[in-house]
Design goal:
about 400 residues, nine-stranded mixed beta sheet, about 35% helix, about 25% strand, globular
């Protein structure tokens, strides 16, 4: 029986580990925190999963919250014009995305991993430990996207656009929101504030039940970038509500009487999107393979993080199964990442485009959504499959041809 070690207990690491268990592999997952510590900890992300990646969890009975999590059936954009009132305001079909607090999801998956026969080891892991592990396991996969271990994987300068954060992030989970008039609770709204950033609101599921979530993406140095040094959760929430009142007033009444779900449900910070090379070579000559956020980290604005992790886990699983008893050498590792990159590159391109100032043809495309539902549905569908953006998003001529095709021009 082949022995595989996965370092990191997030979406990609646990999904891969549970998949390998189902096929009879001897799997160890190492993590720094127990399930109870994760449950009691701070929120880590906003983790919107799209329909196609939710489907990847279902064959292994990992979609444990389908009857509890509020579905995100629709999503769209509200963009104010020069007078502050919405100039763009539409919704498209998102097909049933969902957001389950990782403080629920990952501990449950860790418990499931143990129940199904996996070896869960709670212990900090250093680079020197990885060196030893590569000599004692058939394959070591690093799925811990933060901390010292990431330094083992070199930056891919040709594929990494940025060296500094393009947004400063702030998150809050809350109860007591009211629906948007004529819309309901099932929609995600991106309030895109020119030159300031984005205020994104959507439903989710947290430890205390159904909730709503705000992800605030601030252009560094802009009027939304005000959370540095704010540590008190109530102060964080008061500041966030005030920003909604100022920059997305059409949503303020929805949250004016809402309350935080718990003291650990707020988060702020920032990171630079990056692509790293997939193979770490250790001093002993051993090799470790990265996965998920270790190798491809997008800004959350594009909604690709958890989805990339899920797609990577599925692809790595199938590649391991197909490889049989052959050694997991550098050539195989590179081929696995290359197959993943052929998909992930579309999300990176989309994320990079969103973080910039939208060119005229994209402004025209977004405005067309006000009167043409086909435009809205195409944009939202492509969040689930970013390769679709190549057909109408980046090239002005393709945008014009698409708008003519759907009757928006």
């Amino acid at each position: 029986m082949r022995r595989i070690l996965i370092v990191g207990a997030g979406q990609s690491g646990l999904q891969l580990g549970l998949g390998l268990l189902a096929h009879g592999y001897d799997v160890t997952v190492m993590t720094e925190r127990t399930p109870d510590e994760v449950r009691a900890g701070r929120v880590t992300s906003t983790q919107i999963m799209m329909p196609a990646t939710i489907a990847l969890e279902q064959p292994y009975a990992l979609d444990l919250w389908a009857d509890q999590v509020p579905p995100i059936d629709r999503a769209g954009f509200t963009i104010p014009g020069p007078d502050g009132t919405p100039a763009v305001n539409w919704l498209g079909d998102l097909g049933g995305a969902q957001s389950v607090d990782q403080r629920m999801k990952m501990p449950a998956w860790m418990d499931l991993f143990v129940t199904r026969g996996g070896n869960l080891v709670v212990h900090p892991v250093a680079v020197s430990d990885i060196d030893w592990y590569t000599r004692n396991y058939d394959l070591v996969v690093v799925a811990a996207g933060k901390g010292e271990l990431v330094s083992m994987f070199d930056r891919d300068h040709d594929r990494s656009e940025f060296t500094t954060p393009q947004r400063r992030l702030a998150v809050a989970y809350f109860h007591g929101a009211t629906p948007r008039p004529a819309v309901g609770h099932d929609a995600l709204h991106v309030n895109a504030i020119p030159e300031a950033g984005e205020i994104i609101m959507f439903p989710g599921l947290t430890l205390s039940g159904a909730c709503d979530i705000i992800l605030l993406e601030a252009v560094p140095g802009g009027p939304l970038d005000v959370f540095g040094g704010v540590r008190d959760p109530d102060a964080h929430w008061a500041l966030m509500r005030d920003l909604v009142r100022q920059f997305a007033p059409w949503d303020y009444d929805r949250i004016s009487r809402a309350e935080l779900t718990d003291p650990m449900c707020v988060l702020s910070g920032g990171f630079a999107p990056i692509v790293r090379k997939p193979i770490a070579q250790l001093p002993s000559g051993g090799l470790a393979l990265g996965i998920g956020d270790v190798l491809v980290t997008n800004d959350p604005l594009s909604g690709q993080g958890s989805n990339n992790a899920a797609r990577a886990a599925d692809l790595y699983l199938n590649s391991i199964l197909a490889h049989g008893d052959r050694p997991f050498d550098a050539q195989w590792m590179q081929s696995v990442f290359d197959a993943f990159w052929s998909r992930a590159r579309h999300g990176v391109k989309f994320s990079t485009t969103l973080l910039g100032v939208p060119p005229e043809h994209i402004q025209m495309l977004m405005g067309a959504g006000n009167t043409c539902p086909a435009v809205c549905d195409a944009i939202m569908s492509a969040f689930d499959n970013p390769a679709e953006f190549e057909e109408f998003f980046y090239d002005p001529a393709k945008t014009t041809a698409f708008l003519q095709k759907v009757g928006a021009l």
